Backbone:
């Protein structure tokens, strides 16, 4: 940043003063020097690393120097290389190489220390070997300390804790009262307070095992899984999808990730081992590849997904796998070797390499619609919110390279290092784990083979048959005779049409403009664009001609295009007929210009259009002739070609289009090879491509979609059509034909209901046949029925499937025809009638070509049939299995300790190791190392059972103590003085309800909490008006990602929340006193309490108040509290007596209930 | 301010300092050295205003209009290593490379020198121009995100791809003590209106108590749950709070060492008072017509910005430490097309209100203790943006842009730093966005480096360097 004279001056001045002060005061190595070195130098010159053979972690080592010799010269401090290097102005020379240079004061301190003889204590110990760091040694059970106080020590936990207390001369507090313990236990284990009845039962139960009974009951309560799932969701960064919610556009996580949440709840309730849970989260797809219920555990990895940048996905995964499972800050080694732990920058990338091949797939869930394959990343396309299906991880790219890069910037790849192989830090493992590929069972890489899916599909199809049968019975019972008048109408219409046809033929005005049939594009409403990729064309030579006949019936906007990219809707060349103007692009541009005009009103409607391709000059010559008067409207005008050449290029095509309001007829589309003479043009052999729209290829009245390479572009809008017609060119014929069709529909409509129902039933039955056949073929194909003939089964499957598709399409057409006739039967004066007819027409227009295509496909000789799902790679790299095994190995020193610490932290509101994500050398030391290790071993030896650990912890005496300080003989006064923060656990810590517990408890005490489990997330904006458990409302790290209460009560940050914050802000008070939510719940609980106590009379409110305390705070009130509440009630009643208030009594009681809810003892866990 | 609303005799039971100690987990709320400013009004214009058409006029753009960079006598700025250094896409670079538009687009507005200082500014700021001798410009700012997450970056100091950090307002909130117990220390007006920009006011690991509190300009409902429930009268509610206070006071006797209980008692007292204090702070009914006119509240063009800026003044007057104002809707300054039309309109919407704010602060003697910051997320390209056939706009430009500050502790009528002749690169080292943070905190009496949170190591880049040259 800019250098400034003033500041330099100030600096110089400061330096002078400092120098004088320091020079005159003796430097103390331990006090003044060592902290500087430790902070800035040890990372490279200490126990972790000895760059240039130099260590600076003892005075001896400093005096000894490094590979470059001595670094301090007590005779000449100024020229000591230590001083020279730290005060160098050359950045490449200066130490330390990263960060700010040492300050003037620090440099001066070191200089003077050297000058004063570089003295240090003799007995100074060097930094211990990092590999010997406590957390890197496998935990072992130490012997339990001798029971110091057998009265208070209930289990091994107490032995360790009491020993420490004893050591410090402290006495533990006594057990908390029953009601305090009960509430503590309920909120801890199931996240809800005890009911009044449960409270009374507990207070009345004096049996010795009463407490343990409650513990067991709560651990077996399904609400336990929900409560503790939320804890683990904090640690594992659960988040619903986010990115750009307001668009919406899914960038991070996935809309289906909630299945992972349900898996967590289920796994906890079933007490799956923590090791098993971790293994499934990292590698369920490899470890139990056919277990769909476990596969969703990989939601852990999916949550980190980031659509825009795969590197970011990997970065989050590495960082949080390190922090959450291992308590290691791998993220620090992203840019350089770790400054405190022996994690090399290489290790960072080696860890990443385990995850490099992954991608996400989306499996159909039996019983749900098929979500299709997972949406591939495309920069320009929004990512849809797909709620169906189960997302899961699989190894998609076994050979994906892991590049080493520097400075944390993926653009700075060190490609010459090649791809980094997966591996784990050396200091944590005796031998590098070996990765072997996992052969997946077929049902894993082809999920369409799963019996559960087959069963669901067949069940669904079976239900459809039953329904169709019922429907058929119903419609068959109604009368179905065609009225005579209707039949007569039809006969008349048919006769009229016949007569007109004969007349037309006689008078030389046939219905088609060339041959017997033409293509008619009718965009009276909507828009129609037809495309043809003309694959018959093998070369586009200079001199090739394209021509077609055109008749415009409604002159709005018809155009012909040479499409450059049909998918993107790009045009290379264009001829538009726009209300009398013929327009095209200037050669070499996309600039429109007028090439000629026509007079539609004067009858210029029929045209011959031809384009002569001059590929060498990238243009065409456009000629348009008018059939009326044989005029040439456009004569060989050069227009753009823009590189158009469809040969072998699927993106290019020709297209005809009618925009809304246009009707046009096209015929005899011909491409002719370059020819020398006019005569040769008539030569059939020169014709390369012809579309004449004649039977039998093109059937009268059918859309051309699907025939001879024609297709409908996505720019089309129903109900416009592109139908082949023999009446297209003759308006009166067309109108007569329409009359015939309408009359026919009227006749048909009588039988339509039965025909439609029959067709539906046939389709439903065919679907079952099709499913059966496809399943049989699939099972044969994938070796599940070895003695079968796959080819034959495939042929059958193909046949049955295509039959079923035809029948389904037939049924659909009939259903839509029925809808149309119903719409046409609506009385003429009904304003909705045109809309209904248009809607029905639209659907019909869509379903007819589907049927046509299905029929065409039905005649293919194929033996292909549709698979039930996509297929995925048959092998997985096995990398994540190895990682998961290594993390959960008995020998891994960190995993169990980290987990135990998290669990402990949530029972005691404070962890044993305060840096829960950092067990490395810069992390905190455990307050009770032996206890932590004992619990870690106990955990592992009991199959990593969390319920076992919970039971052990909550039944300890340490857990049962009062949280108050106490002042009497209990020794509280002494303890508070020597251990204010309760590190030694002489009392219980005070807890605070998490945001979810606040909301759930308010609802629960009001009797309103809906305990339905699992399923799609609910929008958190509805969390104050709907009453499921808070766990089930959406969370994500964006604005709106927390509910209104969550926002105030420290709901987790979905980016990172290894520990919750516990804030106290006035807005919390406002929410709990002002919100409609609280007022409504208060009203509800007040009603219940009034009915329960039945004594809320003017004079005696005590039973009501007592019940309110017991319900909300799980304890009876003290005398003083009763007194305060009674006085408040009295005072409020007086207040309301002065006003006209409906139900003043209820209003007063609601207020006192609300005050009790706002009591510190509600949100607090004593 | 300060004492209990209910007349509770809490003082008898609880020593006041115990409560204070429990207030929250921030360090002793005393400044590291005497601050020059008590409060900050941080005005952010979302979308990226064109530096060359506002506060950093570039005649060379007119001289070489229509030419590409390589045809001018200057070094081609795209070839400078600075180009890559200060320019980082969110999407992996193989997927998304933002084009650089090399054809010079002339300035869309004239400019002239103003005031005694003779500082150049464009004609779109007639009212602000009258205040120019009080402003202090920094013309060599740069950032690294070339997309709108730069909006977060200028507030947090971090690129979207990096681990996120608390916003500048949150740090001020964290480091400073309160001047008014009835109001939040960090208030936000007019934003952030989009889900992904909340980071601009977020406190992240500092804890939610340090996040910006968005206030609606509706005195009836300025903050969530901030209004007494319709079913209750004030007196009823007062009695209810009194009962809560008394019940908790009883607990406090039983648990004298429970710091959180003491803090909660205080929070309830504050909550009750906030219900009145916050609406009062944003209620303009006591302002004179002169004042509201000065902010342009009588005119639809300037009303929105005017109301927010007047509210900002009322808040700092009442002791709020950091007011973050979004005077324009989200992203509106983003002028990929129709820059002239867009900037003409937008400058008109903020010019008068901002000038009014300056005058008002001066008149009330508040400018001596208030720091006004006026900024945007990045500048706009000297080249004409041609995307989608564009003919009249400029693209995002992280390599150089201008902000200004004014008020407590700053030089007046001063320009610091510059961009090159084409307005492309910030010259010299320039100033990354955290230099603004360091300067703002410095003026508040805080040293960015001393605001450390255990276990949260911040990087060098997060601290920034105080821009000493602009200090008075």
Residues:
């Amino acid at each position: 940043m800019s250098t400034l004279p003033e500041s330099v001056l100030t600096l110089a001045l400061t330096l002078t003063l400092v120098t004088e002060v320091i020079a005159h005061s003796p430097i103390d190595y331990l006090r003044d020097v060592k902290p500087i070195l430790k902070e800035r130098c040890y990372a490279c010159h200490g126990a972790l690393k000895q760059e240039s053979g130099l260590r600076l972690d003892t005075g001896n080592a400093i005096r000894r120097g490094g590979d470059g010799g001595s670094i301090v010269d007590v005779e000449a401090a100024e020229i000591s290389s230590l001083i020279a290097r730290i005060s160098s102005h050359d950045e490449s020379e200066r130490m330390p190489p990263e960060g700010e240079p040492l300050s003037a004061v620090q440099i001066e301190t070191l200089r003077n220390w050297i000058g004063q003889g570089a003295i240090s204590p003799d007995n100074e110990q060097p930094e211990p070997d990092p590999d010997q760091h406590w957390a890197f040694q496998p935990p072992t059970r130490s012997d339990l300390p001798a029971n110091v106080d057998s009265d208070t020590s209930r289990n091994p936990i107490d032995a360790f804790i009491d020993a420490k207390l004893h050591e410090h001369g402290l006495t533990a507090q006594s057990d908390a009262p029953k009601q305090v313990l009960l509430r503590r236990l309920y909120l801890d284990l199931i996240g809800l307070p005890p009911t009044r009845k449960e409270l009374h039962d507990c207070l009345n139960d004096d049996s010795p095992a009463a407490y343990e009974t409650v513990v067991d009951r709560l651990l077996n309560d399904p609400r336990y899984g929900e409560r503790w799932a939320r804890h683990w969701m904090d640690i594992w960064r659960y988040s619903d999808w986010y990115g750009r919610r307001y668009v919406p556009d899914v960038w991070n996580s996935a809309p289906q990730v909630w299945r992972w949440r349900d898996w967590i709840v289920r796994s906890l309730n079933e007490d799956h081992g923590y090791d098993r849970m971790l293994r499934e989260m990292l590698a369920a797809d490899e470890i139990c590849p056919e277990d769909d219920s476990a596969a969703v555990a990989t939601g852990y990895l999916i949550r980190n997904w980031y659509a825009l940048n795969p590197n970011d996905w990997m970065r989050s995964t590495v960082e949080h796998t390190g922090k959450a499972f291992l308590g290691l800050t791998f993220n620090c080694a992203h840019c350089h070797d770790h400054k405190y732990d022996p994690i090399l920058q290489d290790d960072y990338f080696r860890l990443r390499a385990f995850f490099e091949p992954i991608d996400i797939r989306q499996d159909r869930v039996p019983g749900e619609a098929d979500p299709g394959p997972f949406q591939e990343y495309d920069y320009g396309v929004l990512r849809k919110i797909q709620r169906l299906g189960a997302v899961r991880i699989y190894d998609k790219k076994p050979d994906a390279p892991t590049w080493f890069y520097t400075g944390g910037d993926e653009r700075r790849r060190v490609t010459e290092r090649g791809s980094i192989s997966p591996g784990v830090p050396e200091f944590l493992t005796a031998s590098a784990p070996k990765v072997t590929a996992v052969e997946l069972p077929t049902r894993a890489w082809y999920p369409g083979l799963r019996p559960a899916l087959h069963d669901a599909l067949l069940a669904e199809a079976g239900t459809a048959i039953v329904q169709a049968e019922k429907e058929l019975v119903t419609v068959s019972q109604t009368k179905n005779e065609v009225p005579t008048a209707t039949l007569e109408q039809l006969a008349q219409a048919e006769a009229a049409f016949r007569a007109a046809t004969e007349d037309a033929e006689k008078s030389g005005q046939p219905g088609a403009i060339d041959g017997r049939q033409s293509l008619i594009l009718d965009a009276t409403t909507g828009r129609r664009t037809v495309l043809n990729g003309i694959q018959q064309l093998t070369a586009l030579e200079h001199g090739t001609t394209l021509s077609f006949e055109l008749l415009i019936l409604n002159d709005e906007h018809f155009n012909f295009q040479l499409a450059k990219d049909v998918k993107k809707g790009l045009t290379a060349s264009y001829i538009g007929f726009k209300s009398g103007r013929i327009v095209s692009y200037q050669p070499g541009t996309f600039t429109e210009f007028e090439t000629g005009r026509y007079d539609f009103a004067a009858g210029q409607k029929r045209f011959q259009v031809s384009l002569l391709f001059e590929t060498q000059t990238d243009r065409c010559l456009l000629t348009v002739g008018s059939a009326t008067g044989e005029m040439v409207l456009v004569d060989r005008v050069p227009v753009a070609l823009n590189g158009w050449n469809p040969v072998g290029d699927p993106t290019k095509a020709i297209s005809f289009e009618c925009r809304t309001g246009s009707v046009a007829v096209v015929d005899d589309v011909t491409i002719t090879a370059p020819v020398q003479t006019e005569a040769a043009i008539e030569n059939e052999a020169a014709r390369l491509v012809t579309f004449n729209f004649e039977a039998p290829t093109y059937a009268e009245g059918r859309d051309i979609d699907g025939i001879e390479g024609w297709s409908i572009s996505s720019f089309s809008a129903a109900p416009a059509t592109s139908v082949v017609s023999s009446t297209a060119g003759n308006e009166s014929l067309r109108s007569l034909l329409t009359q015939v069709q309408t009359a026919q529909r009227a006749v048909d409509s009588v039988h339509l209901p039965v025909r439609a129902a029959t067709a539906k039933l046939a389709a439903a039955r065919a679907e079952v046949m099709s499913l059966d056949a496809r399943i049989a073929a699939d099972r044969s194909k994938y070796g599940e029925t070895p003695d079968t003939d796959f080819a034959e089964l495939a042929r059958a499957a193909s046949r049955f499937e295509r039959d079923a598709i035809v029948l389904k399409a037939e049924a659909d057409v009939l259903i839509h025809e029925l809808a149309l006739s119903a719409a046409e039967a609506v009385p003429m004066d009904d304003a909705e009638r045109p809309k209904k007819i248009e809607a029905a027409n639209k659907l019909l227009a869509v379903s007819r070509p589907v049927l046509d295509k299905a029929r065409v496909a039905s005649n293919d000789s194929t033996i292909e049939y549709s698979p039930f799902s996509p297929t995925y790679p048959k092998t997985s790299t096995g990398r994540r299995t190895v990682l998961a095994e290594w993390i959960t190995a008995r020998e891994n020193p960190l995993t169990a300790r980290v987990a135990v610490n998290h669990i402990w932290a949530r029972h005691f509101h404070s962890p044993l190791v305060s840096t829960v994500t950092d067990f490395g050398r810069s992390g905190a030391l455990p307050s009770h190392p032996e206890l932590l290790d004992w619990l870690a071993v106990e955990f592992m030896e009991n199959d990593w059972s969390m319920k076992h650990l919970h039971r052990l912890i909550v039944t300890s005496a340490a857990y049962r103590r009062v949280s108050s300080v106490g002042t009497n003989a209990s020794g509280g006064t002494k303890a508070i003085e020597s251990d204010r923060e309760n590190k030694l656990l002489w009392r219980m810590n005070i807890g605070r309800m998490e945001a979810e517990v606040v909301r759930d408890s308010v609802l629960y005490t009001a009797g309103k909490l809906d305990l339905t489990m699992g399923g799609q997330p609910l929008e958190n904006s509805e969390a104050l008006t709907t009453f499921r458990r808070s766990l089930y409302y959406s969370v994500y790290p964006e604005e709106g990602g927390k509910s209104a209460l969550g926002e105030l009560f420290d709901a987790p940050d979905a980016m990172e929340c290894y520990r919750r914050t516990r804030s106290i802000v006035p807005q919390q008070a406002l929410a709990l006193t002002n919100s409609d939510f609280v007022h409504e719940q208060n009203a509800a609980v007040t009603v219940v309490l009034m009915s329960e106590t039945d004594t809320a009379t003017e004079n005696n409110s005590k039973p009501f108040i007592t019940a309110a305390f017991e319900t909300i705070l799980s304890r009876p009130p003290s005398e003083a509290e009763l007194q305060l509440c009674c006085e408040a009630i009295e005072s409020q009643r007086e207040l309301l007596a002065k006003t006209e208030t409906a139900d003043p009594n209820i209003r007063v009681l609601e207020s006192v209930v609300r005050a009790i809810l706002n009591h510190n003892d509600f949100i607090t866990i004593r | 301010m300060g004492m209990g609303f209910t007349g509770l005799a809490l003082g008898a039971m609880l020593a006041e300092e115990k409560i204070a100690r429990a207030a929250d987990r921030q360090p002793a709320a005393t400044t590291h050295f005497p601050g020059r400013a008590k409060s900050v009004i941080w005005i952010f214009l979302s979308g990226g205003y064109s530096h060359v058409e506002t506060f950093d006029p570039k005649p060379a753009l007119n001289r070489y209009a229509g030419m590409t960079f390589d045809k001018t006598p200057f070094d081609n700025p795209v070839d400078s290593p600075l180009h890559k250094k200060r320019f980082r896409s969110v999407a992996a670079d193989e997927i998304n490379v933002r084009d650089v538009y090399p054809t010079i687009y002339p300035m869309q507005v004239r400019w002239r020198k103003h005031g005694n200082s003779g500082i150049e500014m464009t004609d779109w700021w007639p009212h602000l121009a009258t205040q120019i001798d009080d402003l202090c410009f920094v013309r060599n700012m740069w950032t690294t995100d070339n997309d709108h997450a730069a909006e977060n970056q200028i507030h947090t100091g971090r690129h979207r791809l990096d681990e996120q950090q608390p916003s500048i307002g949150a740090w001020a909130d964290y480091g400073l003590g309160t001047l008014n117990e009835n109001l939040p220390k960090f208030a936000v007006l007019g934003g952030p209106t989009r889900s992904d920009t909340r980071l601009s006011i977020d406190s992240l690991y500092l804890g939610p108590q340090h996040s910006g509190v968005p206030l609606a300009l509706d005195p009836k409902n300025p903050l969530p749950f901030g209004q007494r429930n319709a079913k209750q009268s004030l007196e009823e509610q007062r009695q209810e709070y009194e009962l809560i206070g008394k019940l908790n006071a009883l607990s406090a006797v039983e648990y004298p060492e429970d710091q959180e209980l003491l803090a909660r008692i205080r929070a309830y007292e504050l909550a009750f008072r906030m219900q009145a204090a916050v609406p009062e702070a944003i209620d303009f009914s006591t302002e004179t017509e002169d004042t509201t006119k000065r902010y342009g509240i009588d005119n639809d063009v300037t009303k929105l910005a005017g109301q927010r800026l007047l509210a900002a003044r009322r808040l700092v007057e009442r002791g709020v430490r950091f007011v973050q104002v979004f005077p324009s809707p989200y992203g509106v300054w983003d002028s990929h097309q129709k820059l002239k039309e867009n900037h003409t309109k937008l400058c008109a919407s903020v010019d008068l209100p901002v000038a009014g704010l300056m005058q008002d602060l001066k008149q009330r003697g508040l400018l001596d203790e208030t720091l006004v910051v006026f900024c945007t997320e990045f500048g706009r390209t000297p080249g004409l943006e041609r995307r989608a056939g564009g003919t009249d706009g400029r693209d995002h430009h992280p390599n150089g842009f201008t902000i200004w500050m004014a008020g407590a502790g700053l030089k007046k009528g001063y320009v610091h730093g510059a961009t090159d002749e084409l307005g492309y690169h910030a010259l010299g080292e320039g100033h990354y966005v955290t230099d603004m943070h360091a300067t703002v905190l410095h003026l508040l009496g805080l040293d960015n480096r001393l605001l450390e949170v255990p276990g949260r190591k911040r990087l060098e880049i997060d601290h920034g360097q105080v821009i000493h040259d602009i200090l008075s």
Observations:
- Chain A has a mean pLDDT of 90.
- Chain A touches chain B through 78 residues (CB under 8 Å).
